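FW: tagging you since you asked about this chain on Friday. Here's the raw sequence from the shared folder, copied in full. Didn't touch anything.
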Amino acid sequence: RPQVDARRYVAGIRSASRIRKNYLTADTGGVSTDGMTKVDVQVGKTVAAFRRRLGYSQRKVAVWLRTTQPTVARKERGNIPFSADELVELAYRLDVPVGDFMPAADVERSE
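HL: got it, structure written out here
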C-alpha cells in the first residue's frame, strides 16, 4: 500500500474546495455562493409551512423520506434541494397536490 503524504493530501482537498467555491460563485443560473437557489429556498419554506400546519415534526418527515432530521432541516432551509421523488412522497403524506410546493411564477430564478 503506498504511503500518503498528509500535507499533500490536505492541500489537494483544499484546492478542490476552492475550485468548487469558484464554480459556484460564477454565473451558474441562480446558484448562490453557498449552492442554494431561490427556488430551493422557497420550496423548502413551503414544505416546512405545510408540515407545521399539519402538526408533523421534522423527525417524522425524515422517517417518511428515509433520511435524518438534520437533513430535513437543511432541505427546508434550501441548503439541499428536495428531489422530485421526495416531493411526491411528501405530497402523498401531507395530502396536498405536489404543485403546491412549487413557487409562484414571480419568484426570480437567478441571483
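FW: The helical segments are 6-25, 38-53, 58-65, 69-77, 84-94.
HL: agreed, and The radius of gyration is 18 Å.
FW: great, closing this out.
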